[in-house]
Amino acid sequence: MTDKLIIGSRGSKLALTQSRQVANLLGSFHPGLVVEIVEIKTTGDKNLGASLSELGGKGAFTKELEDALLAGQCDLAVHSLKDLPTTLPDGLRILCTPAREDTRDVLLCRADSTFNGEIPFLGERAIVGTSSLRRRALLANLRPDLHAIEFRGNVDTRLNKLRDGKADACILAAAGLKRLALLDEVEMRVAEFKAHWLDWPPAPGQGALGIEGRTGDVGTARLLAALHDAATFAATAAERAFLNELGAGCQAPVGAQAVCPEGSSLHIEGCILSKDGKTRIRGNEFGSIADPEVAGRALAQKLMRQGGKALL
Which fold has domain 230-312? Predict the structure, then answer.
């Protein structure tokens, strides 16, 4: 029986928090197991001024972690699943998906703003910070007058940019804010900022953790089995299959969310947008948790036939 595991983690506060949460869960299920966390700096962390497209996509935040896994320098890596490419290197696979956190996006703005439907009231041509093409397109679809600017960096960095007046608002994932214990859901605040839920499609995999490891590492897989949530695995597998079938990666505005309402069935909704937000194609598909990728691929093919292919 394995008596020690090494987790490879990015050095951001959120990444380390997520890794510690996994380490604590492993320790609670397996008393006596020693879990060590080692920090690994990724290309994306070293180039916070560049956009994701300039860095070559999501792999900018995972390649060094995956190299460490393949070299045997760590036993597992804890990722925000939405940041993990849909195609993994040979020899690696997702060993575990713990129960999913909130999938929604949150818009943060000054406390004196007032709520107005799907997005809070912001002055005409207000500046909104986000590094996501999906969020930019959805914003443009709802409020074409708003001006989206590149907002990269960890959560604290983005909050500081908002605090310094570099934007009138910014958009973050609720899951990260909750894991960092920053979101007060009673008063709907994050620090001095008012928070508003955004009722729109999340990124595929948003709110879920993906624990990646070596394909043949049976011992680590057995230890992680206690943390695994089958419904989360099925839902995110469908979403990632949808994204993979589109061939969209991070270069197109795409949203998707799957749920498993009755334990054995699966329902996925998805959308493709033009980058300017003027066109939005959406649809849904039903399937089974026994083969969730089928529903994800079917939905992608349906939306491409409806005009989505031209948007990609």
Answer: Double Stranded RNA Binding Domain (3.30.160)
